[in-house]
Write a structure and sequence with these properties.
By secondary structure, the protein is mainly alpha-helical. The chain has 11 helices and no strands. It is elongated. The protein starts with a helix and ends in a 6-residue tail after the last helix.
């Protein structure tokens, strides 16, 4: 059986994605979860703490999507699949994607979101290392920044407005090509 805390987070995720806004209130979450309006304070002392728990759930979902995307692939195909999963997650769940990176709302929220997000970056560095690249920290930062930008532009609909004929997956692939061509392979 799920705990009250888990139910509050699940309902918070549902409300976030239904409304498309981080302006979800504790009372509405409590009402939907079937608990008293004061119950969320037992588990989340602040609204920021609840938003952080909701963001942590999103980061976990994103990590799962990336891990399963390239499960049966190797080499460069794994990077492509991960980038597509990242961009597709942002497009399917734009409110969650936006919340996960709203550090101004989440800092001090009680969840260690860096610990939740760091494995994604570590996974990316490991993939680059397995492909034989040098300076994987810089290269991973370049790759993540570029794919994240594509995801943000696509998830808000701006890609379709500015470049309606451009396939967002091809742009993500171009970002990967650029990151993979930036500098030498390890010798």
């Amino acid at each position: 059986m799920k705990s009250t805390r888990d139910r509050l987070v699940r309902v918070g995720v549902e409300l976030l994605e239904e409304s498309g806004s981080v302006d979800i209130g504790l009372r509405e979450i409590a009402r939907r979860a079937g608990v008293s309006h004061g119950a969320p304070r037992r588990w989340f002392p602040t609204h920021r703490a609840l938003l952080s728990a909701i963001a942590a759930a999103g980061l976990s979902d994103l990590a799962s999507a990336i891990e399963t995307s390239g499960r049966d692939l190797d080499g460069r195909a794994t990077l492509d699949a991960a980038a597509y999963a990242y961009v597709d997650f942002a497009a399917r769940r734009p409110a969650m994607f936006a919340l996960m990176f709203r550090h101004d709302l989440l800092v001090g929220g009680g969840e260690d979101l860096r610990t939740s997000s760091r494995p994604l970056f570590t996974w990316l560095r490991r993939q680059l290392d397995e492909l034989g690249f040098d300076d994987t920290e810089r290269r991973a930062a370049m790759l993540w920044s570029g794919v994240h930008g594509v995801a943000m532009v696509h998830s808000t609909g701006a890609m379709g407005v500015v470049a309606p004929g451009v396939d967002h997956r091809m742009v993500a692939r171009d970002v990967i090509d650029s990151a993979c061509q930036a500098g030498p392979l390890r010798t």
